[in-house]
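Dear Dr. K.,

Following up on our conversation at the group meeting, I've run the structure prediction for DUF4494 domain-containing protein from Aquimarina celericrescens. I'm pasting the input sequence below exactly as I used it, so you can double-check it against your construct before we proceed with anything downstream. Let me know if the numbering doesn't match what you have in your notebook.
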Amino acid sequence: MSATWYECKVKYRKTDDSGAQKVATEPYLIDAVSYTEAESRINEEMSAYISEEFKITNIKVANYAEIHPFENSDRWFKSKVSLIAYDEESGKERKSNMYLLVQANDVKEAFDNTNEAMKNTMGDYTIPAISESPIMDVFPYFSGDETELEKIERFNTLKDSVPVEIESEETDEITESIDTQIEDTSEPSETISTVENGTDLASVQYYQEEE
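The predicted structure tokens came back this morning:
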């Protein structure tokens, strides 16, 4: 989705988990054609979420080349992607950087999602840096063209989906099953390994305690 994104900071009074109120300033991304439209749109969008008075304290152009929502993710990460090009005459490689905003639940998932977003890229690239973004929400632009409606709906569906949590009863059953397996064997069970891109990330062996 090619667009110009504006980062808008919104100051308002919010209620925390303890019920206390505090003043917060939070950044949001708006897809707009100008600062004026960005201000108008962020006021419209926030009016639907905030019942009390709020103030737009700052608007600036965000340096994101692309925004990529992903299903069952609730945090945003800023990925620095270095595109690599080779100069045939000098034989040297040149790098140009761009930034993607991707949705994920942690840094590793953000790395995987960045690779997924870049999978159709023809040239080589590296991902030298990923950091969690303070962006609270993203609002794409809809011009009213019916051909864009499906894209916008898909964008919002992915963006607003939340991580799936395992129910506590199911977790208890899994734990009980593992405990039973440990009690039933006096020999080390098979090593449980998680391997990603050829790297052994975790290796666990279970042994029965000596009597």
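Two things stood out to me. The chain has four helices and ten strands. The longest strand covers residues 75-86.

Best regards,
J.T.
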